[in-house]
TrEMBL record:
<dbReference type="InterPro" id="IPR000792">
    <property type="entry name" value="Tscrpt_reg_LuxR_C"/>
</dbReference>
<dbReference type="InterPro" id="IPR036388">
    <property type="entry name" value="WH-like_DNA-bd_sf"/>
</dbReference>
<dbReference type="InterPro" id="IPR027417">
    <property type="entry name" value="P-loop_NTPase"/>
</dbReference>
<keyword id="KW-0804">Transcription</keyword>
<dbReference type="Pfam" id="PF00196">
    <property type="entry name" value="GerE"/>
</dbReference>
<keyword id="KW-0238">DNA-binding</keyword>
<feature type="domain" description="HTH luxR-type">
    <location>
        <begin position="747"/>
        <end position="812"/>
    </location>
</feature>
<protein>
    <recommendedName>
        <fullName>HTH luxR-type domain-containing protein</fullName>
    </recommendedName>
</protein>
<dbReference type="InterPro" id="IPR016032">
    <property type="entry name" value="Sig_transdc_resp-reg_C-effctor"/>
</dbReference>
<keyword id="KW-0805">Transcription regulation</keyword>
Length: 815
């Protein structure tokens, strides 16, 4: 059954340069009763439909091609009736009823493709749906520029597929392929840039890849944003109804063009404007409920923004103000601030910062001129937070506020706790001083915040948002200063402090608490904690995965990066990569000249880098790093003790460990690290019983706290010597071998202590100078140089210049 003439009508011709997209053809090849191509002009609906119809005919299927611009509903019904072998009645409804029976009896598949289908669907869409939904051999493909209610709803309710603008947009690889067809080779980054500039819109991509008309005899293959602008100016803008053009120009001013924000800018859309914006794809109505999606690619946005005429459309600032107020009414301060800044509505921008500082704290506040924020406490101090190096002095009003808050007694602060600005400004001042590296001042302000917050009275209950925020920042201030116990106390009052609490727990070695908070965390602190916890489990894969994610997230720009460096170093000490990690840490510390880590974090970084240097045998560099830090934190003391043990001075190491133990650090991790290092030192001094006792205590900590990492910091030979006398030590050693960890620290020669003149002679000899040349450079005689060189060789325990330079390079004396 079927009429050859009904299916042999020629298909429209398609430019051979148009891209064939297999991914979309494959979707259409899965036959269903109805496929709806719902997308604006220029989205490539007709091209796709023709390409697929052609392939369907080649595959042996029957195809009827219809176009709503030339075929009326009667012609559509007649074509279907001829194919089904049914007579065409003067009454369309009668013919349509018979069609359902006739099309069910087809012995071959039939594709009915309707382009520009709006008039046909509006007239007989419901009947067509009823006919084809039960005819398994019929595939109805409908191309629409906009949703038609209620017909589109009926189409969607049938067994159907919908391909919208998001499906028809070019992908980056498709842009690369199309460019090659035009003789242009693009990199992935260039194709990505094109995709972003036009939103993958097929018509605009093709337009930008075509040469401009009347440019001469030579055609140069290149991407041309100017050509896209020319196309919009010649073919799009002149055809727009006035209300649609006005709406587009106003929409182009909206920084985040959601439907609500667009309506705030344009006012209610009349029918011509709405229909036009849908046809262009600016409004995508392909939603079953809720607001339409707004799509305005950057090049199109720039084009219509440049067409904004204040004489016809009114002042631009009024549009920005309306959109800003829309976002404020929606309780969305970030997009409100973005819109206000873009429109240079400075009074509004300052108002937003004053009311919603914490919600916009990481926005680009530097766009607001300093003169606009002066005298507005939260905005002015907030600007100082994000610009700690700004030399602009505080305004008199803010200086007065700050002096009053710093001089107020604890009782006065408690009495004034109900004043909304007191706690907010205390918190902001604390964060500002922390960002400036003024640790002592930041901690003093943290004390004042704690006085107002009173964590003991709030723990276990829900704190109001201002108190929760203050507690969070005070806790972070204490964490970055190394006071983990006080930090944890404050953070338990805060809302959203899981990342910081996870890190606090990991730093102290509280593994149950670490696991608890890591499950609830989403940021860098939680991932660092997860990496440290995986190291205690000797889980190489899990720790590597956590560290990879941290690097991908750009942790180097975060204030927590020293903790991440610690985790990286421990991973390298266990499984390799020490030189790379040490070089990365050193390079980052050198490049981050504007960073102001707290003294405690500087000490932690020095200890971490020193441990890597000790492991690499660069003991001179480690000594210099530890000498340069003026922090006597336990991490620095442990690194110094480890260095003393490695260079053969166990008695000095034991003295440093006594200082660590006397400090009374509550961290289980520190206690275990001290015990293990003490056992190694005692073993060297011949106090085997003391070493065995320290290892037995360490194993108790391992069983109680499930902390294994510090046991990897001593040679396996130490564990083997005491395996018989310390129960459980052999099993632990076996576990370390199964994890394929390495003992990172080897005993080396004693670190030489050179005089300044000996160091100068060594540096000159390393440059290849003769003794005479060294003497002339240092203004001393050859014999004096010879004497100093002999002393240098003796301290280095070498016999000559070459060995001295070689060893000095190895241990880092020449770094």
């Amino acid at each position: 059954m079927g009429d050859a003439m009904g299916t042999a009508t020629p298909l429209p011709r398609v430019n051979g340069d148009f891209l064939v997209r297999p991914r979309l053809l494959e979707v259409l090849d899965h036959w269903s009763p109805i496929t709806l191509l719902l997308a604006p002009s220029g989205a490539g609906k007709a091209v796709l439909a023709v390409q697929w119809a052609s392939s369907a005919r080649e595959a042996g299927d029957d195809v009827i091609w219809l176009d709503g611009e030339v075929d009326d509903p009667a012609a559509v019904v007649a074509a279907l009736a001829r194919h089904a072998g049914e007579p065409v009645d003067a009454d369309l409804d009668t013919t349509l009823r018979r069609l359902r029976r006739g099309l069910r009896g087809l012995d071959r598949r039939l594709a009915v493709v309707v382009n520009n289908a709006e008039p046909i669907v509006e007239a007989i869409g419901d009947a067509l749906v009823e006919i084809v939904r039960d005819c398994r051999e019929v595939h109805l493909v409908v191309c629409l520029r906009r949703r038609l209610d209620p017909v589109a709803k009926a189409l969607l309710e049938a067994e159907s597929r919908v391909l919208g603008l998001s499906d028809l947009q070019f992908t980056v690889p498709e842009i690369e392929t199309l460019a090659r067809q035009h003789g242009l080779t693009l990199t992935s980054d260039e194709a990505e840039s094109i995709w972003t500039s036009v939103g993958g819109w097929p018509a605009l991509v093709r337009t930008g890849l075509e040469p401009l008309p009347n440019t001469g005899s030579r055609s140069v293959a290149a991407w041309s944003p100017r050509h896209v602008g020319w196309f919009l100016g010649v073919n799009v803008a002149p055809a727009l109804p006035p209300t649609a053009l006005a709406a587009l120009c106003r929409t182009a001013l909206v920084e985040r063009p959601t439907y609500g924000a667009v309506i705030a800018a344009t006012g209610p859309l009349d029918d011509p404007a709405r229909i036009t914006l849908e046809a262009l794809g600016i409004l995508d109505p392909l939603v079953s409920e809720g607001e339409p999606i707004v799509r305005l690619p950057p090049l199109m946005r720039d084009f219509f923004r440049s067409r904004y005429d204040e004489r016809e459309l009114g002042p631009e600032v009024e549009v920005h103000q309306r959109v800003t107020r829309f976002w404020l009414d929606a309780e969305e301060p970030r997009p409100a601030l973005e819109q206000a800044v873009h429109g240079r509505c400075w009074a509004l921008a300052v108002e937003i910062v004053e009311r919603h500082w914490w919600a916009v704290a990481d926005a680009d506040l530097l766009e607001i001129p300093a003169t606009e924020v002066r005298g507005h406490p939260r905005a002015e101090i907030g600007r100082q937070v994000v610009l700690p190096d700004d030399p602009t002095p505080s305004s008199p009003a803010v200086r007065a506020w700050e002096a009053e808050l710093r001089s107020a007694s604890a009782e006065d602060l408690v009495d004034r706790a109900g004043e909304p600005d007191v706690l907010a400004l205390l918190t902001l001042l604390m964060v500002r001083d922390r960002s400036r590296g003024e640790q002592r001042s930041a901690l003093d302000l943290a004390d004042r915040v704690e006085t107002v917050v009173d964590p003991a009275g709030l723990e276990g209950g829900a704190a109001p948002p201002p108190i929760a925020r203050a507690a969070l920042e005070a806790g972070r201030t204490r964490l970055l200063a190394g006071d983990v116990v006080a930090a944890t106390r404050m953070l338990r009052v805060a809302d959203g402090a899981a990342d910081d609490l996870a890190l606090c727990a990991a730093v102290t070695g509280d593994r149950p608490a670490t696991a608890h908070w890591v499950e609830r965390s989403t940021g860098a602190g939680g991932r660092i904690a997860a990496a440290l916890d995986a190291l205690h489990s000797l889980d190489r894969e899990r720790s590597a995965d956590a560290l990879t994610r941290l690097r991908a997230d750009g942790i180097i720009r975060d204030q927590l990066w020293p903790f991440a460096a610690w985790a990286e170093a421990e991973h390298a000490l266990l499984w390799g990569g020490r030189s790379r990690v040490r070089a990365e840490i050193a390079a980052t510390r050198g490049a981050m000249t504007r960073r102001r880590e707290t003294g405690w974090l500087q000490g932690l970084l020095a200890a971490v880098e020193a441990d890597l240097c000790i492991s690499l045998g660069r003991t001179a560099v480690a000594s210099r790093l530890l000498t340069e830090t003026d922090v006597d934190d336990v991490h620095v003391l442990l690194a110094r003790a480890r260095l003393e043990r490695v260079v053969g001075r166990p008695e000095e190491a034991l003295g440093l460990l006594d200082v660590v133990d006397a400090a009374g650090d509550p961290s289980a991790l520190v206690s275990l690290e001290s015990l293990v290092l003490r056992a190694w030192c005692l073993d060297e001094t011949g106090a085997g019983a003391g070493a065995a006792d320290a290892l037995a205590q360490a194993l108790e900590c391992v069983r109680r706290d499930r902390l294994v990492l510090p046991l990897t910091h001593v040679p396996m030979s130490l564990l083997a010597r005491h395996a018989r006398t310390v129960p459980g030590l052999r099993q632990l050693a076996d576990r370390l071998r199964e994890a394929r960890t390495r003992a990172p620290y080897d005993v080396v020669d004693e670190l030489p202590e050179l005089t300044p003149r000996e160091a100068a002679v060594l540096e000159a000899l390393a440059r290849g100078l003769s003794l005479e040349e060294v003497g002339r450079e240092l203004f001393v005689s050859r014999n004096t140089v010879k004497s100093q060189a002999s002393s240098l060789y003796r301290k280095l325990r070498v016999s000559g210049r070459a060995d001295a330079v070689r060893k000095a390079n190895r241990i880092g004396l020449l770094d």
